[in-house]
Amino acid sequence: QRVILMDPSEDPDDILRANRSREKTFVLDMVFDHTATQEEVYVSTTKSLIEGVISGYNATIFAYGPTGAGKTYTMLGTACDPGIYIRTLGDLFKALEATEELDYSVSMSYLEVYNEVIRDLLNPSSGFLDLREDPRGSIQIAGITEVSTTNVQESMQLLMKGNKQRTQEPTAANQTSSRSHALLQVTVTQKSHRKAMGEEVRTGKLFMVDLAGPERAAQTQNRGKRMKEGAHINRSLLALGNCIKALSEKGANRTQFVNFRDSKLTRLLKDSLGGNSRTVMIAHISPASTSFEESRMTLIYAYRAKNIKTQV
Questions:
Q1: Alpha helix locations (H) across 99-193?
Q2: At residue 128, what are phi and psi to the nearest 5 degrees?
Q3: Residue 175: which residues within 8 A CB-CB, separation 6 or more?
Q4: Which of 22, 101, 243, 275 is 20 to 30 A from 94 via CA?
């Protein structure tokens, strides 16, 4: 459960900085090394959330980390080694089939936040979509396509189709860099067969978010359009960071204001960060010595997110 971050530029002969080491230790709930498989990561992070979704709680899984550290791989995986999306949906359908006396429906929508506008990945021709807040205070996306699915194969095809529509561009740091935050929302609704009892409907929402990596223009050598995209990505991640910081300090200081309105991303995730949701953040770091700063920032971010207390 411990990550030790060594500074690659540290020189043992440097007398001036002898006792000012930048070596840091972070204690997290779970740490995986390079030998961990997709199955291991899935079982120890996400598998326990599925029961909650079926019994009507919300759950959120984030993939966070610098560009090129493997977020999309963790979430989507490859055809022969699927990631968290597919494994979660597989287990969800299995668990739902096992529940007796309940009718259930599963619908999913897949969208991306690109340059602070929302695009529907299952129906890209619908243009940019608006965020609206309904009277109960939950955030809705006007005109998003919701597709009902009954099995994993259908979901897999939908995800693959949606992922082809995602904005990906090569940068100097990463050949298939995601230029947008992708958000898969699965809604599970259940009704009991017996209509005589009061009509009880349970709704559980599962959000799976593949964030775009924060990046430095110097490292990715972005110019023009890529640079603008990078600025938008960094801005929304900063807004997310501010929300996490405010939420983690809220215990000590009740007056802390959490600004979810700073970006579309944080407004979408309002419920999953501070609200009625069980949330897992999977932080990715790269072992390369060139990305020491990025790894340090990511670990601080993840460590801070651990202090958020929510009442589900």
A1: 152-164
A2: -85, 140
A3: none
A4: 275
Extract the tokens encoding 134.
């309904």
Binding site as annotated, residues: 65-72
Instruction: Give the burial class of 18: count Cβ atoms within 10 A of its Cβ; 0-12 exposed, 13-18 middle, 19 or more buried.
Output: exposed
105 in any annotated domain: yes
Give the angle 166-169-173 at the CA atoms, nearest 5°. Answer: 130
Measure the CA–CA gap between 217 and 220, rounded to whole angstroms.
5
Q: How much is the CA Rg of the chain, to the nearest whole Å? A: 20
Distances (CA, A) of 257 to 50, 138, 248, 264: 31, 19, 11, 18
Residues 117, 265: Cα–Cα separation, whole Å = 10
- Joined together, the tokens standing for residue 139 give 């955030």
Looking up tokens 């009902």 gives: 148
What are the φ and ψ backbone dihedral angles of 300, each rounded to 5 degrees?
-65, -45
Please report which helix (H) or strand (E) contains residue 230, including its range.
helix 225-249
Q: Which domain holds residue 279?
A: 2-166+178-306
Binding region for ATP: 65-72
Smallest CA-to-CA distance from 85 within 50, 51, 114, 120 is with: 50
Count the domains in the chain: 1
**96 domain-assigned:** yes
Is 181 in contact with 211 (CB distance < 8 Å)?
yes
